[in-house]
Design a protein that fits this description.
By secondary structure, this protein is mostly helical. The chain has one domain. The chain has nine helices and five strands. The strands form two sheets. It has a three-stranded antiparallel sheet with strand order 2-1-3, with helices on both faces. It has a two-stranded antiparallel ribbon with strand order 4-5. Helix 1 crosses helix 7. The longest helix is centred in the first third of the chain and has 38 residues. Bound molecules: zinc ion (ZN). The site of zinc ion (ZN) has 5 residues, from loops.
Length: 290
């Protein structure tokens, strides 16, 4: 099968790296703001305080979801044009509908439930409880932004007349907030995604993601693995680097990881280690109507 032109691969690499960097900058700033708001909150037992607090958190996150969608679209459309030679039309997704229709205010309100539950049931200090809640707030915020990326990519790809497949692009080069702060090399990201890096998805399918997923996406024109599939070359180069870093060990460890795609009731398709279990749409409906 003809391989992609090296110039196409190089330009695609520049675009997906720019997209990943923009996405992670927005994510780092938003997570830091949300964490700070949560760490400073003291109205855990006041429903009036909770409503104004979750409204602030949701407003911040929605603004960042819109930014994430816009930057995903800006880079995604350039990549689509590069690979397909065709212009795709633009239009930003409605970020209010991303969390399975659950408003972000309700998502963040779960933090207050968590706080009170942990205070009542766990032998933890106030600081320890707060730390757990802050961590969860960061994860929720990250998920909200990933959902914006995923939905915007899909909306743009569906408008392209020639793209019917795509693949995830893994990003070992992206530092986490912690690794950047400690001056460390970026960790190997998205272990689950490394395992499924060879999967190809139809444009009508949503990308399976997970909390703190660092992946972006690349369109495929024509056959997977052919001249219109630069993402395969990008992933192969990174996988070789990842395996070289850990010698035979990481390859052996990764070969043992079994990854499953589960349909999460609110988040859509989610990657999990095959051992983990999940609430499906039926369980979520049942819980909501209890
Ligand atoms: Zn990932």
């Amino acid at each position: 099968m003809p391989r992609p032109d090296p110039a196409l691969v190089a330009e695609s690499l520049a675009l997906v790296q720019a997209q990943a960097a923009a996405r992670w900058e927005i994510a780092a700033i938003t997570q830091a703001s949300v964490r700070a708001e949560v760490a400073a909150f003291a109205g855990w037992y006041s429903s009036a305080d909770i409503s104004s607090w979750v409204a602030r958190l949701a407003k911040m996150t929605r603004a960042s979801q819109r930014q994430t969608a816009s930057s995903t679209s800006a880079f995604g459309l350039r990549l689509l044009r590069l690979v397909s030679g065709r212009q795709a039309s633009r239009g930003r997704v409605d970020v209010d509908r991303l969390w399975g229709g659950v408003p972000l205010e309700s998502v963040y309100a779960r933090l207050a439930d968590d706080y009170r539950f942990l205070r009542a049931t766990e032998p933890l200090s106030d600081d320890q409880v707060l730390e757990r809640v802050v961590q969860r707030a960061g994860a929720q915020t990250d998920q909200a932004l990933t959902l914006a990326m995923r939905a915007q990519w899909q909306a743009d790809a569906e408008r392209s007349p020639v793209v019917s497949l795509y693949r995830r692009v893994i990003h070992p080069e992206v530092a986490t907030e912690a690794s950047a702060r400690d001056g460390e090399a970026p960790p190997l990201p998205c272990g689950l995604c490394v395992v499924v890096a060879d999967r190809v998805y139809k444009v009508a399918e949503l990308l399976p993601v997970h909390t703190f997923c660092r992946c972006t996406v690349a369109p495929i024109v024509g056959a997977a693995g052919g001249s219109g599939d630069p993402g395969l070359s990008l992933n192969q180069a990174d996988l070789e680097r990842i395996y070289a870093l850990g010698g035979g060990t990481s390859a052996a460890v990764l070969a043992k990881v079994r990854v499953a795609v589960r349909e999460h009731g609110e988040l859509g398709p989610v990657l999990r280690s095959a051992a983990d279990e999940f609430r499906g749409p039926d369980q979520v409906k049942a819980a909501a109507t209890r």
